Amino acid sequence: MHTLLTPDRPLMWTIIANLHAGGFIIPSRWKQHQAQLKRSKEKARLNPRRVNAGPSQIAQAMDHGKDALGKWGLIPTNGPGHAGKITGALISSVQGERVASSGDDPLYLIITAGGDGTSREVLTALYAASPWSRSHSVVLRLPMGTGNDGADAWDLDKALDLLIYPSKIEMTRALRLTTATGKGPFYAFNILSLGLDAFVTHMTNKMKRFFPGNFYKLWVDMAALFYDRLYHVGPMEIRGSDEAGNTLTILQDRILLLAVGVSGRRTYGAHKWILPDDRNVCAVKQMPLVRKLRLKGLFTTGEHRDKPESILFNAHRVAFQGIYPILAQMDGETVLLEPKDFPGCIERTEAVIPVLKGIMKLHPAS
């Protein structure tokens, strides 16, 4: 391995791959990714070869001694929830190695090769791990799904550059959704939202089970026409507050969607700029059908922020109360909230998730 990541300490890597994700099974994308992998391999050869790096013991153990995938540190997932179970097993293994180790503690690199759902499972398991385990781990999220809004780069070669060129480990926050009935908590690591866009995500996921590809735009168009017939867009109260608990914003209106980001300047739905500036909350009021059809395209570019139906603001904690069932989505996974689950709350957690960030650009843009 030729990575420059923490060259002064041992490195153990695990690749958790969803081989059914769009980046693998859509022929045009897989062809593009193969070319990007080849380019990254050539760039990495310019770095010194490491002798203190290797695949994790859990990756080799899960290969059942076949040494076909384990020697590459690769563990394929076999269905929903498996990525989280793999991460849990890895964390347990790390704790065991800590007890047995008499030398320097390794850094455990977890590479997710899948979509936002795969990375969400891994990050959720890591969030629940001990502080020691998190402090000795780091995650790199490769864009191998259909949307990849939560990946560490939109292009595979730029994500892999974080291993080839100097980078640092940075702690980032999560979003936590809690309810009055104790349903949850649910976690997201990019955007957590309620309403129309959660319905779009829900229907897109249903379609992906049968046909590979990105159906998000199709269901945006369908939702503009039919969402109001399937879900009541009723009055909601939304309260945004800061970390000290001071109320910053109060909304009382019929809300079509509510999106909360770990930070501002974030996308969802395959790079739709729902949070186009530094503000991390966007609420969109209900509007007539003709108006929806006119404005829906603006969410791709972020131009919706200038429209009167859009209310953007900053908040650490967003409490919401409604009277009708509503879908919530967490980085591409959905759950139905019932009236008994209200009031609900979306809040940013402490910064505990270790991810890779580039230090500087040392090479020309490709």
Biggest beta-sheet profile: 11 strands, antiparallel
**Shape type:** globular
Q: Tell me what portion of residues adopts beta-strand conformation.
A: 25-35%
The computed structural class is: alpha+beta
Helix fraction, binned, reads 25-40%
Mean of residue pLDDT values: 91
Count of beta strands: 20
CATH architecture of the largest domain: Sandwich
Number of DSSP helical runs = 11
Overall number of domains: 2
CATH fold-level label of the largest domain: Tumour Suppressor Smad4
- List low-confidence stretches: 362-366
Description:
With 366 residues, the protein is of the alpha+beta class. It has 2 domains: 11-172 and 352-358, Probable inorganic polyphosphate/atp-NAD kinase, domain 1 (Rossmann fold); 176-348, Tumour Suppressor Smad4 (Sandwich), CATH 2.60.200.40. It has helices at residues 22-25, 27-44, 57-61, 82-100, 116-127, 131-135, 156-164, 196-208, 216-230, 289-295, 298-301; strands at residues 11-17, 53-55, 74-76, 107-114, 137-143, 167-172, 175-178, 186-188, 191-195, 235-241, 247-261, 266-268, 272-275, 281-285, 310-313, 317-321, 326-330, 333-337, 344-348, 353-358. The strands form 4 sheets. Strands 7, 8, 9, 10, 11, 14, 15, 16, 17, 18 and 19 form an 11-stranded antiparallel sheet that branches. Strands 1, 2, 3, 4 and 5 form a 5-stranded parallel sheet that branches. The protein is globular, with a radius of gyration of 21 Å. The relative contact order is 0.15. Residues 362-366 have low confidence and may be disordered.
